[in-house]
Amino acid sequence: MQVLKEYAANEIEVKKSRFLAEAFPVESQQKARELLKQQKIKYSDATHVVHAFSVGLGGEICGCSDDGEPAGTAGRPVLDVLKGSGCTNSLITVTRWFGGTLLGTGGLVRAYGDAAKGVLAVCRMEEYISKVPFAVNTDYQFYEQIKKLLVMFEAEIESEDFTENIMLKGKLPEKNKAVLQKQVVELTSGKVSVV
After folding, report:
1. Which domains are present in the chain?
2. How many Å is the Cα radius of gyration of the chain?
3. Which of 48, 83, 185, 190 is least enclosed, having the fewest CB within 10 Å?
4. Where are the alpha helices (DSSP H) in the chain?
5. What is the pLDDT of residue 91?
6. What is the DSSP annotation of 39-61?
């Protein structure tokens, strides 16, 4: 499975209707819903804000909405494109401004599907790797060596708090958790551990 590296957008026009497709990286169904609410507020002048999302290692949590378009003509085609791309932890919204010409059910399915394909074509993606949060509380003596180990084991350091000790927090590929813990314990003779 793939995940988005960053936000992306692409716009198409079909018979004077504008379709703005936007793709967002999300880590949960709740985050997808929050972003959808923001999109509906942001585009309150639009006719429809259709969405589809997929979350989880295998994209097992997913959902979509036609947002007032005829049933099955908008959200489902966007979800089908998203699932077919092998992309997870993603939300796609397709915002439509009606151009005055009815597209019919087949036309809507094509337009929403093409909008979703268009935004995925401009997305930057990377392989999905299951990550777990970590924290390391170390004294200054081991800081540089532990930081090198974290980099070596592909940890993303999200914060460093310097007080009496140094607290490093972030995310780490789950597959590297046990070996990193072992290396830190060996390096510090058991004085520091990764939690």
Report:
1. 2-127 (3.30.230.30), 131-187 (3.30.70.240)
2. 22
3. 190
4. 29-42, 75-84, 104-121, 143-152, 177-187
5. 97
6. HHHHTTTSSEEEEEEEESTTS-E
